């Protein structure tokens, strides 16, 4: 009860942050949109995906890149709250402990949902035509939200321990890179052996395959199970590690 | 004397190889203002952070409001408020929103009324609905102190609360401290301004090299230091004389000189204020 109340109070604060510094969302969306333009209008002609509409198969990868970029701001937010002493202020108050860390994680879900929606609109202008039904949309949104939660918990750790802003964001670079070594942009079958093995067994591929199927209005099959398992597993591990780091502050 | 609001015994704390506290203890009763003095790096902030549940002591115990800070931190947090050495306000929120947030986090219903009252008292009414990152350094500090007073905590920690404030702001903080103490709150104050301690503190302690090297009421300290042989000094020693006598007592002039600067920390404080990122 108290945890919910405190989380809501702290979320109110960060919702105002999002509304008052929209530049964060612009920064997060601009790079993925540029990439989308590049892939569709420059490389698109040369990549054989078998899909009728390249942007339909491209979009999930772009969305994941946006989320990976977006969670770097989660680390930055925590870093600055800590540096400005706000974090210590909350910690010295009768605030439910989980609320203090769930605030930035849930904030990441909201701000990344906005970013992904913006990128979805941009894609729609470029011909993105998802054919998912309501259930498909809900599952797709759920997978994206879970992926965000997992990465945001991961981001809490550098946010808490970093000594500089650059240190706080560095963790996100490999995450942004992961979709490139997956089925996001080119079929994994074209990759050399070891790379292909990695690509086919990393979480991003399962998530991409799930989203692609759902948005095409098809059943996602076993990919959705593996995508959810990856997200929940990663979230649980990152959450445990983040709480451990937090306790030792 | 009533049951102590803060009682610390044998506090020891090191950061890596730096031994910061080597066994200090003190007591503060409700209605008292306790001032902890000491040169930069003496461990004042560390002591405050231990009492405010932010840092674990390596040894020793502290009870605040009757609760042990390491075993019942939640109960302690409900009883205290902390104004840290550096102002901690949310720059993207307005002054009013910052105060209302504090009220919400303390589970208080009348947040807006409390906020309006504090904004008035701290001369921030005109700037109430402006984002705090547009405030001057002194305004931020006033807001910071005001935020700590939401909910009338019984034990109040003020770590250099007047650093960077103009004379009027300082006076307002002083009056507030006096009122809060008169209302029964226990106040733990650290300061670099010795006149501030002299005016507010009902008792003081001087921290040096990890130990409390002097404590007592102002009158008691004045009787102890400086040594009586200076009979040609006609004027009563000020607290500053006492402080310098203690802190510089081994005759390390360098240290005494540094401390003196710290004692006149108007400028030091200002620089700190300006280094704060926005
Ligand atoms: N988190 C930390 N890690 C390492 N060393 C620390 C840490 N916090 C404090 N110290 C060290 O402990 C000592 C005491 O610091 P503290 O901030 O308590 O001093 P202070 O008396 O408040 O000084 P000031 O008057 O400058 O505010 C300093 O040497 C400082 O460098
Ligand atoms: Mg200090």
Which helices and strands appear, and what pairs or packs with what?
The complex is a heterodimer of chains A (249) and B (278).
Chain A (H helix, E strand, L loop, with lengths): L1 H19 L2 H21 L10 H30 L2 H6 L5 H29 L8 H28 L3 H6 L1 H6 L15 H9 L1 H13 L6 H26 L2
Chain B lengths: L5 E10 L2 E11 L4 E5 L6 H8 L7 E6 L2 E2 L4 H7 E4 L11 H11 L5 H11 L15 H13 L5 E5 L7 H16 L3 E5 L3 H7 L2 E6 L2 E6 L1 H7 L14 H9 L5 H11 L2 H10 L3
Parallel strand pairs in B: 3-8, 3-9, 6-7, 7-8
Antiparallel strand pairs in B: 1-2, 1-4, 4-5, 9-10
The complex binds adenosine-5'-triphosphate and magnesium ion.
The total of beta strands of chain B comes to 10
Strand tally of chain A is: 0
- Could you name the ranges of chain B where pLDDT drops below 50 across 5 or more consecutive residues? 251-278
Assign an overall shape of chain B. globular
Helix tally of chain A equals 11
Note the run of SSEs of chain B as H and E. Answer: EEEHEEHEHHHEHEHEEHHHH
What is the fourth-level CATH superfamily of chain B?
A: P-loop containing nucleotide triphosphate hydrolases
What does this structure look like?
Chain A has 249 residues and is an all-alpha fold. Chain A has one domain. Chain A is 78% helix and 0% strand. Chain A contains 11 helices and no strands. In chain A, helix 1 packs across helix 5 and helix 6 runs parallel beside helix 11. In chain A, 44% of the residues are buried. The mean pLDDT of chain A is 90. In chain B, helix 3 crosses helix 4 and helix 3 runs parallel beside helix 5. Chain B has a single domain, classed as P-loop containing nucleotide triphosphate hydrolases (Rossmann fold). In chain B, 49% of the residues are buried. The C terminus of chain B is likely disordered. The longest helix of chain B has 16 residues. Chain B has a 6-stranded mixed β-sheet, sandwiched between helices. In chain B, strands 2-1-4-5 form a 4-stranded antiparallel β-sheet, covered by helices on one side. Chain B is 40% helix and 22% strand. In chain B, strand 1 and strand 2 form a beta hairpin. With 278 residues, chain B is α/β, with parallel strands linked by helices. At the A-B interface, helix 1 and helix 4 of A face helix 2, strand 6 and helix 3 of B. Bound molecules: adenosine-5'-triphosphate and magnesium ion.
